[in-house]
Amino acid sequence: MMRLKKNTRVVHNDSNDTLHLKRHKTNTSIVSILPVALQLAFKSLFAEKFPQYAEDGHGPVIFNGSTHLENLFYKKIESLTSVSQFPNILITTDINSLYHHTSRLLNDRNFETFQSPLHSIYAGTKISHPSNVFGFLATEAMVMVAVRSKYEDTPLPREWYELLSPTLRSSIVFCGDSDYHSNTVFLHFVKEYGYEAVKLLSKNALIRLHPEEMLQSIDSGNKINASIYVMPYSYAKNIRNRLDYEIIWPIDGAILIPIQILVKKGVSEKDKEVLRFIMGEEVGKMFEEHGLIATNSKVENLLPSKDLNWIGWNFLNNNELPDIKQRIRELL
Hints:
D-Maltodextrin-Binding Protein, domain 2, 2 domains, 28% helix
């Protein structure tokens, strides 16, 4: 197990060293890949606790929130052949390539297991990893934001299947951009309703935007003429105009996008100190303050609903996710 070193230099090179996942061994102890706003808060909190490890350009700790580098990183994950190529501690989000069947290295021989119970709000979700190799720090809750003026004569949607209605043709805004989409949301529809649902959603989609761009669109008066925004609650809760927009927490549950942590076997004492901090109440409160659902049992999650919708390990373990994701890309 590599120990944290104070003077290890960090150099970014997309082609040869994607976030320090190397062909052989890595000099990086911690890699954190989170959405930009959350990453900034986490990095600041981490620097207060461990200033010797978190200075920009120094130390074996990498923080990144760039979608471009994230995509490079997750593609690289699938090509790794040895556990030595992983950082000691890896924090990622979404149902990414770590969930693919090609990630054969993810077992309790190579990685530590997590035994601490999750927050009671997760009691009915069964989100805990079957072999406890993944630890969970929090989840993003995907909700709907409805433009009230579009529903003067019809009821607002309250369940996810209602987004399949032909009345919503070219009027739903999803997370992403022209080349990227939120895996978890569309995987949910495949699980529940099959690929036909993705075909319907492709017709109903107006555009894919980053959640920050969604907020800008909403604040500027919905000039893109959307009816529904499907976005993280962490962003939706910042909508100022609640007269013209309604945040809808679906009755079949907010779709959960996980933030998971992976720890190589045999962590050092210094890494254990970092790990206790990452899994602790202070970081949990940071997630909650940003509108995510913390897993730390000591954190009070202040949410408008406790209805949560986890896709389930049966679906994740019994399907070839790369094939499903490719099919979704083609249909969208």
